[in-house]
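ARCHIVE RECORD
Type: protein–small molecule complex
Small molecule: uridine-5'-diphosphate-xylopyranose
Source of inputs: curated submission
Record status: active
Notes field left blank by submitter.
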Amino acid sequence: MVIQKICCIGAGYVGGPTCSVMALKCPDIEITVVDLSKDRIAQWNSNEKLPIFEPGLMEIVQQCRGRNLFFSTDIVSAIRKADLIFISVNTPTKTFGMGKGRAADLKYVEGAARMIAENAEGNKIVVEKSTVPVRAAESIMNILKANNKPNSSYQILSNPEFLAEGTAVQDLLHADRVLIGGEETAEGQEAVRQLSWVYEHWIPSSKVVTMNTWSSELSKLAANAFLAQRISSINSLSAVCEATGADVSEVARAVGLDTRIGPKFLQASVGFGGSCFQKDILNLVYICECLNLPHVAAYWQQVIDMNEYQKSRFAEKVVSSLFNTVTDKRIAVLGFAFKKNTGDTRESPAIYVSTHLLAEGAHLHIYDPKVEPHQIVDDLNSSTMDPDIVNRNVVIHSDAYSATKNTHALIVCTEWDEFVTLDYEKIYADMMKPAYIFDGRKILDHDFLQNLGFHVQTIGKKMHRDVARAWGCQNHQM
Ligand code: NAD
Ligand code: UDX
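STRUCTURE (tokenized, with ligand):
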């Protein structure tokens, strides 16, 4: 069997970019990405705006779409003709029932498996690309076997995805590694070889790592847990820095110069967000609890708890710095995405900070270069559970200058490059005085801003500036 046709179920942040890059690098393979959402598929087929923002993605989609890359809602025929099927559907945290708030909700994976079982004929390789709990492949196999047609057979592989949003195209083109887990039977190993062959169109074979299915599934959760743990570790030290006068950037640099530790993922921040870290660690915690490993569960839970602490510490610092009240104060929130170069807001720290300030009676003026206004409103409606507050006290702006005008404070929640080069002299002139900046991403030039007259607060660094000096500066400016 040589893979000629691939179907990917789920046209989201993973399915879309992964299959686009695969189509670019495998012109001999026809790839169809399918989704239940007609709107999403229509956007993937549009030349104006893809359903997700990823630098470099539109160019690749335009190059391959209609050639060997197709986006469709016809799930049945895509499944029927495919030799290999990726399951790339969402696996959010359960919001109800057993494991609520921790376990992964596998209903979409099960839905995809049932669609395959009902429609597939012949030999199919089914690949779990979604992030799933350990041994999820077993459940998929049970569904497929229970509905087995006489002329069909399956191999299940685990092939977790490691791309990060905002850098997805580069991550896919130059993956650190591609992980493939499969059964140790001859048929299982043959399926592993087939999928390896697809990746080896552009990934060196030394980076295609094969292992048993359960190790592959667990490795994905482990990688995200390790990455998030580094952020929580540096964020925990940022609190120590603020209390002592040490500077967390200097500490991170010193620690990261140890080649055993390395410099990446040591950027202290308002807290990590995104659709993966929290969900996958909660999933790991739940698995540990189910396996009666409470010490291991508590260990990883602390990574989440520290992240919650960091977000609340930052939001409380905004309130306490603004004379302990933000009621009826106008506050600009710059950045709503969970990181730069994406329009994704899932678990964005900006949601937490905004919700906290709205509860304190603040009026928010929000600007993000890529997040759709309706998304900001939806996120705040679901987190405040009070559409009236959002209607009354939130204004969405289309640029940073109008968002900051006449505000008492400005908060940087996302590290967009354009926030670094804004004209802060103009912003200062247009803000209420004393004017405050809270840099939750440590991207701004704090000395420069202080010299302009701003009161600056950031993460992991005690800012030395008293009110008298602030007023002095401001008067000097005027
Ligand atoms: P997403 O929500 O962006 O996309 C999932 C898509 O699957 C949706 O468009 C949904 O409509 C579709 N879908 C659900 N059930 C379906 C079905 N039965 N048939 C057809 N379509 C169906 O999710 P995502 O961010 O792409 O994540 C997908 C998986 O990849 C998750 O398990 C996630 O943990 C994992 N992952 C995500 C990232 C990331 O950066 N977002 C990175 C690595 C791994
Ligand atoms: C993550 C993993 O990096 C990726 O491998 C996996 O496939 C999906 O989950 P993603 O969530 O898209 O990717 O972005 P990532 O770059 O990991 O950032 C996650 C969050 O951590 C963001 O809110 C980011 O701002 C924050 N972060 C990251 C920090 O606060 N400090 C850092 O040093 C790095």
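CURATOR ANNOTATION: The CA atoms of residues 132 and 211 lie 16 Å apart.
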